[in-house]
Amino acid sequence: MSRANKTVRPKFAREGFFGRLSYFSARALANLRQNVFVSIVTVGTISLALLIAALFLLVYVNLEGMALGWSDKVQVTAYFDREPSPLAVSALKGQVKALPGTAKVVFVSQADAEKRLRSRLKGQESLLEGITPEVLPASLEISLDRSHRESAQVASYVSALRRIQGITEVQYGEEWVQRFNSFMNLFRLMGALLGSFLALTVLFIVSNTIKLTIYARREELELLGLVGATRLFIKAPFLIEGVLQGALGAVLSLLALFACYYAFLENAGSFLGVNPAAAGLCFLPLPHLAAILGGGVLLGFIGSLTSLRRFVHL
Amino acid sequence: MIQLHNVSMSYQAEIPALTDVNLKIPKGDFVFLTGQSGAGKSTLLKLLYADLIPTRGQVLIDGVNLGRLKRSQIPLLRRSIGVVFQDYKLLPQRTVLENVAITLEVLGWGKRDIGKKVFHILKQMGLEDKLNSTPLRLSGGEQQRVALARALVNDPKILIADEPTGNLDEENKEQILSIFKEANIRGTTVLVATHDRRVIENSHRRVIHLEKGRVREVTDVQG
Ligand SMILES: Nc1ncnc2c1ncn2[C@@H]1O[C@H](COP(=O)(O)OP(=O)(O)OP(=O)(O)O)[C@@H](O)[C@H]1O
Ligand SMILES: [Mg+2]
Predict the structure, then answer these.
(1) Cβ A313 vs Cβ A225: under 8 Å
(2) Who's near A147: CB < 8 A, 6+ residues apart?
(3) pLDDT above 50 for A4
(4) Ligand 1 closest atom vs CA B210
(5) What is the ipTM of this complex?
(6) Range with the largest mean pLDDT of A85-99, B89-103, B200-214
(7) What are the b/e assignments for A115-134, b being 16+ CB within 10 Å?
(8) Which ligand is nearest to the CA of B209?
(9) What are B112-135's pLDDT values in tens digits?
(10) What are the backbone angles phi and psi of residue B220, rounded to the nearest 5°?
(11) B27 touching A, CB under 8 A?
């Protein structure tokens, strides 16, 4: 044994998982500081790419919400041949509510129906002469759960309704339901296609940006390998760096998205002539926000991991 | 102990950089490797720290066949070998201190121990005023000494230096050579590639002469 080998080695300072993690994180932060410009470009690219994806998601979510709002008007009306007694009404309502898929049931009595007709024909009361409430049938107006609006489901719902005693006729907008459903399917398909196309583009742009930043530091990667660093030791700081950049990019993109949304709310009224708040616009729900954040983190991590594979040959 | 058995190495088929090299360098030896530009000096040195794997033959260090090492074992080998690269390979964004510290960080040393050890060796190299400069602000000779400090800071078993006196004046060459000698006295096996005749003649050490990838002569001028 040479004397060189007998030198007393100092105690290792970074044993254990957390010791190493803190060292790698410190290294990652130092790298970010030493490569400010490159880091800014990377974070900027990630946040722009995610912003585009998030804007798309925001528009999609709102359009879907609006479309589902329209479909709240999908109603089934059940008519009675005779006005049921108040006691019978509540029994009938209970029976209808028990059917799977019922969201809301409203009883319209003969008198209500007449009132409606009158208010609809205001100014042309002469048409109503001779019409007494008895002429108009009493009915139940039923709205369906969102989960029960497929046309096959509506059909089976209607046949179940017909079996209830006292109901003589059922009307529902069969054609309308079908058209609306095929529209929604097309809309979702387009959304999925556009969305995955967009996701691929984002993945491509971000991974290439990260590849460039890692390429710019291939000398460091090479040197670390030559002085005896393990694969983990070389890669961990870069991976942490990627995760931090991804998270930062995602947060910035969400802030920008919120700014866009807010600016739209403020200004939409003047040029669209509608009150956006009344139109039921909403920001992305929390799970979507979390998904974007997670997407950013994942992008940073996977982008770094795949790029490192190209330059670390240990 | 470093051993090469019938080692051949070609980067591209048909153009060998080394042909049938047989060598034995005992522990604690101090050897020069000479030969014209392109003779294969750097190639031979790279085989020793497993940066290259020979196309034929075996390289053994302390009986371990480097061709048989798993990828995960290579870092352990490299930690016991200090290398001064022909192109230094200093990291331009890091300070002198940080560049030298890398060797010890890789080993998992603590911050304070690293600080002490690095400062000590940089002082030995006469670089105590340049701790916080970046390599690009240093002269060629200073950069060379930083590279040397990084190679020596963890007292390696083997020191490999590829053309370490390249652009130095006589005084600096002397200084570098005396650092090699000190390391050698402390037990490190030293292997220096150079085509500087003067350095070799003044040092009275064993010389391995390469010519077009073959060992032409081994002169023992010790004593
Ligand atoms: N990465 C490489 N790819 C292909 N050929 C290479 C590579 N590195 C070296 N060579 C070739 O191998 C031969 C030996 O090169 P090497 O670098 O070992 O020479 P050297 O003795 O160190 O020269 P110098 O004194 O100029 O540094 C040369 O012919 C060179 O062109
Ligand atoms: Mg060379």
Answers:
(1) yes
(2) A101
(3) no
(4) 21
(5) 0.92
(6) B89-103
(7) eeeeeeeeeeeeeeeeeeee
(8) 1
(9) 899 999 999 999 888 999 999 999
(10) -105, 105
(11) yes
Handedness of CA B176, B178, B179, B185 (dihedral sign): positive
Lowest mean pLDDT among A127-136, A203-212, B144-153: A127-136
Q: What does the alpha-carbon distance between residue B154 and residue B157 come to, in Å, rounded to a whole number?
A: 9
Give the separation between CA B17 and CA B38, rounded to whole angstroms.
8
DSSP code per residue over B26-47 = -TT-EEEEE-STTSSHHHHHHH
Residue in A226, A232, A234 to test binding to B, most B beta-carbons within 10 Å: A226
What is the rounded average pLDDT of the residues A101-122? 84
- pLDDT bucket at B223, cuts 50 / 70 / 90: very low
| C-alpha–C-alpha distance, residues B63 and B21, integer Å | 17
When the pLDDT of each residue in chain A is averaged and rounded to a whole number, the result is 83
Determine if ligand 1 sits within 6 Å of the CB of residue B42: yes
**Does residue B19 lie within any of the structural domains?**
no
Confidence class for position A71, pLDDT limits 50, 70, 90: low
Residue A72 has pLDDT above 90, yes or no: no
Average pLDDT over residues A256-279: 76
pLDDT, one tens digit per residue, over B138-149 is: 988 899 999 999
Looking at the complex, report in whole angstroms how far the Cα of residue B54 sits from the nearest Cα belonging to chain A: 17
Q: Quote the minimal CA–CA distance from B215 to chain A in Å.
A: 26
- Quote the pLDDT of residue A30: 86
Instruction: Give pairs for B176-183: CB < 8 Å, separation 24+.
Output: B176/B144, B176/B145, B176/B148, B177/B202, B177/B203, B179/B124, B179/B125, B179/B148, B179/B152, B180/B30, B181/B30, B183/A4, B183/B152, B183/B159
For residues A88 and A140, the answer to whether their CB atoms sit within 8 Å is: no
Amino acid at site B92: P
* Cα angle: B43, vertex B46, B50; to 5 degrees: 135
In a domain, B212, yes or no: yes
Maximum alpha-carbon separation in chain A: 121
Q: Is B17 inside any structural domain?
A: no
What's the total number of domains in chain B? 1
With respect to residue B26, please indicate whether it lies within any of the assigned structural domains.
Answer: no
Q: Domain range holding B194?
A: 2-7+32-220
CATH number at residue B87: 3.40.50.300
CATH for A75-172 is 3.30.70.3040
Cα separation of A42 and A214, whole Å?
A: 11
Q: Which of A10, A220, A230 sits opposite B113 (nearest CB)?
A: A10
Query: Nearest CB to B75: which of A11, A13, A314?
Result: A314
B156 pLDDT more than 90: yes
What does DSSP say about strands B214-219 and B206-211: parallel, antiparallel, or unpaired?
Answer: antiparallel
Domain ranges of chain A: 13-69+180-311, 75-172
Q: What are phi and psi of B195, to 5 degrees?
A: -115, 25
What φ, ψ does residue B217 adopt, rounded to 5°? -155, 150
